[in-house]
Please model this.
Amino acid sequence: MGDAMIQAGYGEEGFTEAVLEREKDYPTGLDIDGIGVAIPHADADHVKKEGIAISILKDPVEFGAMGEQKSMISVKIVIMFTVAGSGKQIDRLLQILNVLRDEEILKGLLSAQSKEEIRTAIQKREQAF
Model:
């Protein structure tokens, strides 16, 4: 996903590596109503412009649990974002978490089979991201 964000003009060279390094120190795996979600991102100095990418994984991937030492979460939904400017990461993270609290959106994402279905699931909530 990081490489796709770079190719699409959202991340600087090294963005993917920065996301992976940050994930080691500050894992982003969450269990939201029994559904594993991860929200990886990098610091703003690796970002060209703001954006968001969402992947629904066919096979879950283990992510470290946010705020819990050595706990792992089996993740099916990955939401990667970029923000320009320091201090904006927390706001974007909270915005994403607020959207994911909507059970209809979460289930819509989990069942999505295409980019269009992901967009439809998100658009159920006005100005989701």
Q: What stands out?
A: The longest strand covers residues 51-64. The helical segments are 2-7, 15-25, 88-100, 103-111, 115-123. The CA atoms of residues 19 and 42 lie 5 Å apart.
